Amino acid sequence: MKKIVEITDSMGIPEEYVECYGKYKAKINRNYYEKIRSNDDAKLILMTSINPTPFGEGKTTQSIGLAMAMNKIGLNTLAVLREPSLGPVFGIKGGAVGGGEAIIEPKDDIDLHFTGDFHAITSANNLLCAVLDNHLFFGNELNIDKDNIVIKRVIDINDRALRKIDVGVDGGTNGVERTTGFEITAACELMAICDLAIDLEDLKNRIDHMLVAYTIDNQPVYAKSLNCTNAMIALLKYVINPNLVQTKEGTPCLLHLGPFANIAHGCNSLIATKMGLKMADYVVTEAGFGADLGAEKFFDIKCRIGNLKPDMAIIVATVNALKYNGGCTVEELKNPNLEALKKGIVNLEKHIENVKKFHVPVLVCINQYNTDTQEEIMYVKNFVNHMGIEAEVSTAFADGSAGATKLAKLVKNTLDTTTADFKYLYDDEDSIMEKIKKVSMNIYGAADVEYKQGVEEKIANIEKLSYQKLPICIAKTPASLTDDPKLLGRPTDFKIHVRDVKVSSGAGFVVVYTGNILTMPGLGKHSKYEEF
């Protein structure tokens, strides 16, 4: 690795804006954005994927590989990605620094404590929760309904035992007894707030307007009423400064924050993206999970809030994942199976159709495994060609930038010859239920939306509070286009089941919970912590 000051020097970042965390990590002070704000914007390239399978489709790996390859062919390119959460690091998925020859460094630091962003958000969120319970203990001047508190404590570990807990047990000096629970840090509203705040003033305003509870007479209670915003800002003042690291080949990478895409909006911070667009000619970014979740939220939430104009999108797919979607068992995946591939490629087809609805150029990146046959690769290429889309193979995992050079040249040619006419899927003026219907039918392919008893009333109350114009963030399983993780491929004639809604008023969107999606994951019987 190069020392991080060598990276910042090569990028022309003045020393006064660089805050080093050891030799190989740094934060870039948010004020640097104001200095470079008048620079021309880079081309913004979104990396997304088909619905993920248990093997992982390599979206982060290919984002890193593409950024390195574009630099290798002489294009000034920056990767702007998400930080890992300790939940997946110690859970089933593992780390989030790419793989093989396409990784970001220092990978162990990044996967674990990094620069402390997640820890600071965890502490600030839990301070707010402690202050709220303390307020109840000292007389409850705000008349808060202890059974209608919407904020929860958080921890950055998968721990199903904390999903539902009792606090203040036995009352008295232990506090007011009530039932609550924990979320994982990456799912909480404060993570989304930090992710979307553009400066400290914006951060403070968003925290002030967090809806944390309701009163006995069903009136909203906001965080500003608990008088701890300044204390939270003290914990968070460095969090909104983007982190700078490097890829294995020395390509700069802004790696900053990381809400999950299945239960949050799934993108790196807005300030990192905006800063990155002024620091390079090309920016490669990613959105979590498949295009039905991450890409849709990137387009409809992040781009809307941040006034971003993406220039193109790339959908990552693997032959193995497509065969799996076509009914191939895990044991059979290494064997050629053109029939399963033909059945499963409809999942890729749907994602291509979906991304086209946002009016940006689309490419397909085939993340090649050594078990893929030439016949299988050509079938995928020919299939997407018939849809008017080009595809290119990448072997970035095995070969680093050299393995993604053809993809980089295709990206450059596409950007030179086509222009995006970016559009959102729904309008601000649409009702919340109209927005849910448009995403469910247009992106997931649902025939209808079904609401659990009481949810429509909750939506009506949210609209009465003047939050109708906010974008929606649908929490849904990433494994399927539906809200049932077992339905693979391209299901038809299904319903999306909405079981709850919550307004994240500080972040600026309405969260819609579908199916059995959980905001606190659990560990598997055997997880990655065993491999440390």
Explain the layout of strands and helices.
Layout: H1 4-11, E1 18-20, E2 26-28, H2 31-36, E3 43-49, H3 59-72, E4 77-81, H4 86-90, E5 98-99, E6 102-105, H5 107-111, H6 117-137, E7 144-149, E8 153-155, E9 165-167, E10 178-180, E11 182-184, H7 189-196, H8 200-208, E12 211-215, E13 220-222, H9 229-236, E14 243-247, E15 252-255, H10 270-279, E16 282-286, H11 291-306, E17 312-317, H12 319-325, H13 338-344, H14 346-356, E18 362-367, H15 374-386, E19 390-394, H16 396-399, H17 405-417, H18 432-444, E20 448-451, H19 455-464, E21 472-475, E22 495-504, E23 509-514
Parallel strand pairs: 3-16, 3-17, 4-15, 4-16, 8-11, 17-18, 18-19, 20-22, 21-23
Antiparallel strand pairs: 1-2, 2-14, 5-6, 6-14, 7-12, 9-10, 12-13, 14-15, 22-23
Structure characterization notes:
The chain is of the alpha/beta class. The protein folds into 3 domains: 4-115 and 239-417, Rossmann fold; 117-234, Domain 2, N(10)-formyltetrahydrofolate synthetase (2-Layer Sandwich), CATH 3.30.1510.10; 432-514, Formyltetrahydrofolate synthetase, domain 3 (Roll). It has 19 helices and 23 strands. Strand 22 (495-504) and strand 23 (509-514) form a beta hairpin. The mean pLDDT is 96.
